[in-house]
Amino acid sequence: MNCDSIARWYRWLEYAGFGSELQRRRIAFLHNVTGARRVLVLGEGDGRFLARLVEQNLSSSTDYVDLSAQMLQLARERAGSDRVVYHHASALTIPLAESEYDLVCTHFFLDCLNQNDTERMVDRIVRAMAPGGRWLISEFREPNWWTRAVVRGLYFFFRLTTSLATQQLVDHHPLLERAGFRLECSETSRFGLLVSELWSKECRRDPVASARGSVPP
Description:
The protein is of the alpha/beta class and about 220 residues long. The protein has helices at about 5-20, 20-25, 50-55, 70-80, 115-130, 145-160, 175-180, 205-210, and strands at about 40, 60-65, 85-90, 100-105, 130-140, 180-190, 195-200.
């Protein structure tokens, strides 16, 4: 989704609809990842989360990917370029080094993907994440009729303003669980409409090495 057309007004549109709640969802578990060193942030927007991340993780090096050049510029203005590399690209196609990142952040990003693209994105992140890496996710949910109505309205708005093709939320939980992720903590707000999650990639032991034991050479 390319938000160039609404980038300059996005923050105020967000406040008009949800106050500060979306930002609270983004930073809900930021205190749990203070040791992150190599970070990948995908499609987070105008950099408000990024600025907090950089401020907190003083030894981090971050790759920031967004399809919107305007959002990238806003993020650069907020977070600077000392420890952040900005990539104007699609998260689905940009080359990602294998086993590189110990933290991945996707805030209100997966809800812009259809089922096939979500599966592709999870697979790409699995390969890009270092053993024991963690994944911060913020998303919308539809636990009842009221939240479904809100989400439908949001999809309609973004279809008009950004030509977003996706019109239905995809449940990422089974995809992450099959990929070997474990949900560490979760927090919801606005009657279940918004959720913050922290996942960790389980370190799977080599069965051959396990059979031989842990005696050093």
